[in-house]
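REVIEWER CHECKLIST
Item 1: Sequence provided? yes
Item 2: Single chain? yes
Item 3: Sequence as submitted:
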Amino acid sequence: MQLLFADQLGPHFDLGEEILLPVVKSQFSKRAYHRQKAHLILYALRARGVDKRVKLVELDSYRDLLADSRDITKLVNPTSYPFRRFAKEMSAEILPSRGFASSERDWDNYISSFKRLRLEDFYRQQRTRLGILMEGDGPVEGRWNFDSENRLSPPASGTGVKPPWFPKENEIDKSVREELDELERKGVRFIGVDGPRRFAGSREEALLALNWFIENRLDLFGPYEDAVDSREWSMSHSLLSAPMNLGLLDPIEVVRAAEKAYHEGKARIESVEAFVRQIIGWRDYVWHLYWHFGEDYVNSNALSADVPTPASFNSLDGSEIKANCLKQTIDSVSEYGWVHHIPRLMILGNHALQRGYNPRQMNDWFIDAFVDGTPWVMPANVIGMSLYADGGKMSTKPYAAGGSYLSKMTNYCGDCPLNPKVRVGENACPFTAGYWKFLDENQQLRSNHRMSNAFAGLKRLSDLEELREQESRRTSF
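Item 4: Structure as written out by the authors:
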């Protein structure tokens, strides 16, 4: 019998044997999950359990399996340190990891070849090894990267892209909602609003979501990849990260579908290349970095940031926030359990970096509040890229930005009572003020050559003392 974990639910994890699939709801009492994340997990488990070869078993803890694990003969290596330790305690055969476009051996070959950490090197090696968007020995259309074409601001009239595919709720959803209601009556706390479920939770749904994205949304993905628009919460993003992280889609089939759309003339190269880079480049890269950096990486705190995660984050309530970008992003996380990578990095992460929020707490928050949050995906993204808490292992400089960036790449500033061009005063933008506050309080970063212009600008500020006083008294954003 094969033991299956909750993020191994697709056919590429199925070894063809009888399957034991545990349902462990005690995880929801350990930390406050987003209600929609808990719903999606339980739905996916129940939907997989419809297969006659699958035996669903309700457990208080995975460790209950150790009492009598003789029938479990095989399992695919899990995706976190605690579960890998647990797997080694069992007598079952542990098969190599699945669900990614590269293996641990492929990562070792990359490290031995390049002897440095650089996404572009890894990505090109992936493209070459897998033969994706390649023409002979080189990339199609003679370029590896189309980033320069994919930085458009949100268009005034909207993108005009078709809305995402959404599942139709069914009897399993109804049953799961009743389960979660019962947990809440017993004192389990969730954050965020309840459904409707917006993310694929079964193999059949995942394929429908993939096909809809490829046919209707992929072509405009690239140009507006980094844009944030209050009218289009998902822009042209695929919403496939959650089903992929549940193991419902194999990333190789996802990128092959995108590549096929390019060759058939259905999607421009700028969009297809950007999407492929997110899947076989970035997604695989942060997966391997989870193991490369080690289990203690989540405790990194190079900037000595120790401010607790604020109540507005922990409750997902933006009602007391003035800054429109931050308010709407928090509210979007509450409503959907998801925002795309720019609100994560340049609004939530940027704010947390500027204000010195504790990196470990922020890492845990991102895992719990996002439907696609997993222990392996967040450390490199949050600890490394967003908060620079690793001191530069992941990124060559902190991703700190003021209101000018947000004014360019979002449409939030027009309706905001605060001015992105103002750093001191009643209508000062907390991101603009926070940017200079961050530099002022982290003078040790002067030695980073990529920060030289920023610190030269700080030196020229005529109102630095006023800014320091203002930010020392700040209690709201």
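Item 5: Key structural point noted by reviewer: The first strand starts at residue 2 and ends at 3.
Item 6: Recommendation: ____
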